Amino acid sequence: MRRKAAAEVIGAGERLYEAAGALLADHRRAVEAVREAWTPLHADLARSELRRIPVDRLAHVTEGRLRAAVVAAVEAAGYDTVQRVLDAGRHRLRQIPGVGQQSADQVLGAARQLAEAAGETVAVHLDVDRPEPRTTALVAALHPLVEAGPDARSAARAAEALDAGLGPLLAEAGPAGGRLRRWLAGRERRERALAALAEIGRRTERAAADGVPALLAQASVDLLRGPADEAAAWVDFELRSAEYYGLLAEITERPGGGADAAAARGFLPEALAERVLAQALDDTYRRVSLRGYQSFGARFALAQRRVILGDEMGLGKTIQALAALAHLAAQGHRHFLVVCPAGVLINWTREIEARSTLRAVALHGPGRHDAFADWRAEGGVAVTTFQALTGFPGAAAGELGMLVVDEAHHVKNPQAQRSLAVAAWAARCAYVLFLTGTPMENRVSEFRSLVRILRPEAASGIGEVDTVAGSRAFRAAVAPAYLRRNQRDVLAELPALQWTDEWEELSAADREAYRTAVRAGNFMAMRRAAYARPEKSAKLARLRELVAEAAAGGLKVVVFSAFHEVLGVVQDALGRSAQEGSGRLFGPVSGRVAPARRQRLVDGFGAAVGHAVLLAQIEAGGIGINLQAASVVILCEPQVKPAAEQQAVARAHRMGQVRAVRVHRLLATDGVDQRVLEASDRKARLFDAYARRSVVAESAPEAVDVSDTSLARRIVEDEQARLGAVG
């Protein structure tokens, strides 16, 4: 190689190496600024927690090794909380009568264990309504990293590779830069230098072709660019708080998963959890950071191949599915299929395009067969509905990289056509991921039918004996195929959820409408009778009061009902005030509304400035849409299925919510609402016992099997007897 050419190659390598080092330094400074802002906030929260823990808890930590007399002496000396013990230190503790050197060390050791646990448990909450200097500093520190987005992560990854690879090569290639140096180096050294020079040339050319120098330069600029001012940082946080919290967790979480590692792993058996943690997760095609529990969920889907991800609503099941798809795409798979209800198809295509670099192909509407042919030829992530799936020819064995079924409880009936279609596709695919926050609603057998599609051998091993024997045996049997985490376990920063049951005394008109429905034996009419006379409706009057209170505070409200007729009544009641300028009214969102218009209504509601109201039928509004713009939820009546209420509320109280969510459930005294609540509570206990945790739980009640039809019939008969109104 000519001297000039060698110098040019080395010069290009040095410039690229310096750019990589500069980017890494900028990224480290940005990350360190976040840690410096977060550390005092987190430490104060941990100390507050320790100030609430009485000193006698130290005996539990040591499992009795710390004598009760020592603990009593420490408490008598005024050190009555764990934090006061830590503040005292060894010297002061040893001055307490009856506390020797060994006892003082034991007391401090136990206190430090609790301090470590507290530090892992507490989470910093960024209150957008009550900003203070320290939380503002943290938001401002996070802002450039969030603003830089996934490109900064890609740039940092490329910079790390260049920093590790080019440094040694440049040192090795030194003798190739000049004739005298080559002559003095000796033959073996010259050969190594020339080889290193050639490798530098290859790497710099490949980096230039991939646009790496520009990526590094832009990332450095982005990381050094802070928010325009503090207010701008808080506005940006409110718009995309999930990204801020996700990045904060990524920076501050410990490698082992922190305090709630067991919860993040769904309380799976240790051996299974370790196998999942060993699963690699390639993020080449992913454009979003993952929380620790989300990374585990994606790895679980990949390691176990055919599973149910049953996370509670609001924990990002879609993101976890996309992470698994992105990993498989990086491994060479080209075709993926997502099956979902029609109402969430648009949301899925949006998420694929925004959160990954994968190609999204909607298989819906009149052109779905042409789109299917295009997908078969070009690849990507196809998104279709349960109904449309039945009209497509099946994939060849091994052609499909992964099948994802959203709201998978829709295929719980093994005889239904959509269930058969999903089962047929699943049989030809190695990786199958079912997503559902409600894997069973009435019968444990429904949950078993989902497992049967994924793992027939596991389902056959779960007999009726396991079911009636109790939930522990059931969960242990399905652990390899089922992972569930709950919000309270893994989203410690989530704002409070406040439930209020609003019991209203029926008006005379309400009671007459209710008796008419009872005489007719019409269960559905009984449930909506409180709105049959709008001008005299006690529930409607309370609903208007709640909306007016929210309007005064500039808060957004979602009103849910199972009945389109009830939403019509509410729309009429609220329409006048909305037109008078107290807020905007959107909806109703219902099964009658086309998916595209449904998404426009939700988008408009979220984009509205200040107070707004969205009306939604609970079965449509509780599935697949994100309503974290709302901080007030009103349920017009109790639901027979507790999962329906939980899903609907979780659309607002989810990752990304920055304000406390108030839920108001409107209930009528002395009637059907009380009976529905009792039945709902029984179903909720069944779900808790069998499906809320993946495995490991306390003793559980026996399984009950009450269908909605038999429940309605029994309530109608009881009410007819109570009111003497048998038809």
TrEMBL record:
Keywords: ATP-binding, Helicase, Hydrolase, Nucleotide-binding. It comes from the Bacteria. Residues 298-457 form the Helicase ATP-binding domain. The keyword rRNA-binding does not apply. PROSITE patterns: HELICASE_ATP_BIND_1 (PS51192), HELICASE_CTER (PS51194). One of its GO terms (molecular function) is hydrolase activity. Gene3D superfamilies: 5' to 3' exonuclease, C-terminal subdomain, P-loop containing nucleotide triphosphate hydrolases, Tandem AAA-ATPase domain. Residues 542-712 form the Helicase C-terminal domain. Coiled coil: none annotated. PANTHER family: SNF2/RAD54 HELICASE FAMILY (PTHR10799). This is Helicase SNF2.
